[in-house]
Design a protein that fits this description.
The protein is α/β, with parallel strands linked by helices. It folds into two domains: 247 residues, Rossmann fold (3-Layer(aba) Sandwich), CATH 3.40.50; 72 residues, no CATH class. The protein is built from ten helices and 14 strands. Helix 7 links the parallel strand 7 and strand 8. It is globular.
Length: 328
């Protein structure tokens, strides 16, 4: 059952230097219990897409066009008091830096109980019990004792677990995770990814996982959307996108990952830099960096379907260019 439906979302920042089209026509659906990975380089519009859903885009940015339908309700037109009621209760966000979520001068129990009472009436005993239960869910040992701790008394991985616990307090229908494991070591990252998968399955929660790391979403997400210059250039099941990429940009991201290449072979590098959103090239935004670009790429390509729900926005899709992650 579809929980979230985004249609032609455009989030622009109107600056003195010009209009920055951070999100420029993004569309996708998300079902209950599904994990969607959004992948791309820095500046591709991944995080702004998440902030747009949460209604957290500050001036000079605003949603210029499109709709965000959550459980049938258009969030773009929703008054702020009603959006505030949804935010944290039915839609939660896990930020990249847990200290953006946690107040360094307040104990963890104070912050968690405050988050609970923002959306309901809780007795002291029930609130503490709920906090203990959720901390235990995310793998924090001795949750009763850790509730009395301050954020600086936790390691980076444990602080991120507390941030995840706060997001889970109200058992939200949708969680948006904005690169929450980027700053963690590989072992802690693997533990948190395992806990996330288990919690999503137990609660039938939908999740959007924003990251620049295809290796993470390969083992986590059901579907993957690859963003470049504010647009989704490829989207499909994880198997389709990771093992049979159709867009040259997706193939470049996979080819540059050591874990996806044979030992001793040279990594494939995407030449050049991502363009500034304020100064995008005409036509396909990726053409200045693409080895397959032709004169046709001077016109912006429409999204086309290859097979099933595998979408690609490219004049020259690389069908069969990769087979099980090995470069052709």
């Amino acid at each position: 059952m579809t929980l979230l439906s985004i249609e032609n979302l455009k989030t622009h920042f109107f600056t003195k230097a010009g209009v920055v089209k951070s999100v420029d026509g993004v569309s996708f659906d998300l079902d209950r219990g599904e994990i969607l990975g959004i992948v791309g380089e820095s500046g591709s519009g991944k995080s702004v897409t998440g902030f747009s859903i949460m209604g957290l885009v500050d001036a000079p940015g605003r949603i210029a066009e499109g709709s965000i339908r959550f459980d049938g309700q258009n969030l773009v037109d929703l008054p702020e008091p009603q959006m505030r009621d949804l935010r944290g209760r039915r839609i939660a966000m896990i930020f990249q830096d847990p200290m953006m979520t946690l107040n360094p001068v307040l104990r963890v129990d104070t912050q968690m109980i405050e988050a609970l009472r923002a959306h309901g009436r809780w007795s002291d005993d029930d609130a503490r019990q709920r906090c203990r239960d959720v901390l235990g869910q995310v793998g924090i040992p001795s949750p009763e004792e850790r509730l009395k701790s301050y954020p600086h008394q936790f390691s980076g991985g444990m602080r991120q677990r507390v941030a995840i616990a706060i997001a889970l307090l109200h058992q939200p229908d949708l969680i948006i995770a904005d690169e929450p494991t980027t700053a963690l070591d590989v072992t802690i990252q693997a533990q948190i990814l395992f806990e996330i998968q288990k919690l999503v399955a137990e609660n039938n929660t939908a999740m959007i996982w924003v990251t620049h790391d295809l290796a993470v979403v390969a083992g986590l997400a059901n579907r993957v959307a690859v963003m470049y210059a504010g647009r989704i250039v490829e989207m499909g099941t994880t198997d389709e996108v990771v093992n049979r990429p159709a867009h040259p940009y997706t193939a470049g991201l996979i080819g540059s990952a050591p874990s996806r290449n044979a030992r001793g072979t040279r990594l494939t590098q995407i030449r050049g830099m991502a363009p500034l959103p304020m100064n995008l090239p005409t036509g396909c935004a990726f053409q200045p960096r693409c080895d397959h670009a032709t004169g046709a790429c001077a016109v912006s390509p429409d999204a086309s379907t290859l097979e099933g729900d595998h979408l690609v926005r490219c004049h020259h899709p690389l069908v069969g260019a990769f087979d099980r992650g090995t470069a052709a």
